[in-house]
Amino acid sequence: xxxxxxxxxxxxxxxxxxxxxxxxxxxxxxxxxxxxxxxxxxxxxxxxxxxxxxxxxxxxxxxxxxxxxxxxxxxxxxxxxxxxxxxxxxxxxxxxxxxxxxxxxxxxxxxxxxxxxxxxxxxxxxxxxxxxxxxxxxxxxxxxxxxxxxxxxxxxxxxxxxxxxxxxxxxxxxxxxxxxxxxxxxxxxxxxxxxxxxxxxxxxxxxxxxxxxxxxxxxxxxxxxxxxxxxxxxxxxxxxxxxxxxxxxxxxxxxxxxxxxxxxxxxxxxxxxxxxx
Length: 277
Prior knowledge:
Number of domains: 2
Low-confidence stretches: 25-31
CATH superfamily of the largest domain: Periplasmic binding protein-like II
CATH topology of the largest domain: D-Maltodextrin-Binding Protein, domain 2
């Protein structure tokens, strides 16, 4: 036989359930706090800036920032969020830590790595980093330049690379028949190709792009297939960013990349970096 439940107990159970639902709703809302709403309330988007051309550059005289990640950060803040943009000077050792401690809202030009992904979240890549090759297009040994690294892996082809770098590790794993000339610095590696002591320069794609723009008469960039040490270069954001906020920035980056606008910014920043040199 079941006993009737007193109305007072029913009210208590209902009240507890209602409180639980309200607390759950409050917790969900707290979890969905918008970083962009906070930025808009503050009226400023703070971008952590560690200098590395052509991503982020700083004029030593004026302190003004430039570079294609600077352009993207400024445009996103001013045009999408409609706030002022402030660039906060930092270095590569502190760029992630400053993001975690809320010293800035975005970390510019972070290579995507599993280790960093343990500490921060990443946007979709604005550009891709990889080890690239650069060759003299008039070199008779390279009349038919191809992006297939196996086609360049010949006994009479010499690859110049800075010893002990990620580029050295990548090319050493990919080349089995060609010669690898390991040199103490990138200037020496570039000079080896310019003087024709080596046939192919091995370096990061961004710095090879700068070097090719500075030597348009003879230099040709090659992005080998399969790619060597390829990583996305993205904005870093705090790990507690909501999916909705992250998608706002991702949509912005995908659209600008798909239309070729980011590549235009890269080329302009690369020319500026060469002019500064």
